[in-house]
Amino acid sequence: MTGVGGTEWRLRCAVCGREHAVQHAAPCLDCGAPVTAHRVSGGFDVAEGAPGVWQYAGPLGLDPADAWMSLGETMTPVIPDGPLARRHGLGAVHLKLDHLCPTGSFKDRAVAAAVARGRGSGATGIVCASSGNAAASAAAYGARAGLPVILVMPSRTPRGKLLASGAYGATQLLVDGDYSVSFAVARELARRDGYANVTTTYVNPWAVTALRSAAYDLYRQLDGAPDAVVVPTSAGPLVHGLVSGFEDLRAWGLVDRVPRVVAAQPEGCAPIARAWAEGAERVREWEQVETDVSGLDDPLRGYAHDGTLTLETVRRSGGTAVAVSDDRVERERRRLAEASGVHVEPAGAIGVAALEELRIRGDLQPGERVVCMLTGTGLKRPLESGRPPLRAESLERAVAAVAEETT
Ligand SMILES: *Cc1c(COP(=O)(O)O)cnc(C)c1O
Ligand SMILES: [Zn+2]
């Protein structure tokens, strides 16, 4: 099975090993576990000047002729946060600003590739289940590709996230229940209509594969591999993409090791961190979601397999999994905004919020170089200002109000 861009790929079930056709974008037909993509041949090259993930058209097996569908979803900035590194006694903390992807989350990397692949194999439209961010990605890339888009989201999706995907002319469908219900609806719609399902769990192996681009970026931007990468984690495709991407780079002789990848989850929905703490082999679905961290509130109902694959991937990297309270996430999110000038949504801050616990547990050592993935923008879910605005009805009063505030 030959891909384009000079690489050859196979799709294989992560549990039973059954091989599937390259256009298969669904769980394993035999056992229901995730199907993942494996590169059989091909190396690393960067198509300088190509946009977004098409810079990696070769290593990701994307068709260079599809590059017009890109919105620029790669090489987001990496910045050092000195005060954060000093506070935790680390050698360096780098923030990967993936919330600056075109629609405000890293999901753009996955969806750009999945939409292009779907269109290439004749899909007549795009369907996507989402807690908000993947919906914005699917709506934008679907519009760009000229395909109709159906978005399936939980009815309690935050308003800012609904607005973010509503602008592109897609059909928005709100369904009651948690994310797992939306997930099931999207699968049903895709089955019936010949739509490509670009839901960013492990459903679409090409979406997951494109997340390797985040590892390729870090390799280029940091001049090698960091010691650890802390990743906001729901089902875990981003974890999978980072580990697989660094494994690629190691196989190609470009880095000497794979960083330890840490899965960070909110305490109120932490199926992977719970399995880690119990030393379990398998992840069980989460019973009752009790977190406001939108995007990390997937109980994995009906596809706990996905969590198990992520757990195995974390172990393979030598990493760990950790749960963080909503309060701590919100505190660190405000600190990131007020002290570092970076405004992310709660999910985007959870990696930074996990650093203290990771230091206490000894999972991060003094002097190590750590990357925190900032996965989603604050603009869809803004922090309330800590200080109400001053108001004034005239020039004189405005000047007086400011003088009073600042003396
Ligand atoms: C989807 C999402 C995540 C979780 O990513 P997974 O790859 O599903 O584990 C983290 N942060 C944000 C902002 C997201 O939208
Ligand atoms: Zn299988």
TrEMBL record:
Keywords: Lyase, Pyridoxal phosphate. GO terms for biological process: isoleucine biosynthetic process; L-serine catabolic process; L-threonine catabolic process. Its cofactor is pyridoxal 5'-phosphate. The keyword Lyase applies. The keyword Amino-acid biosynthesis does not apply. One of its GO terms (molecular function) is L-serine ammonia-lyase activity. Residues 70-376 form the Tryptophan synthase beta chain-like PALP domain. Pfam families: PALP. It comes from the Bacteria. InterPro entries: Ser/Thr_Dehydratase, TrpB-like_PALP, TrpB-like_PALP_sf. This is Pyridoxal-phosphate dependent enzyme. It comes from Leucobacter weissii.
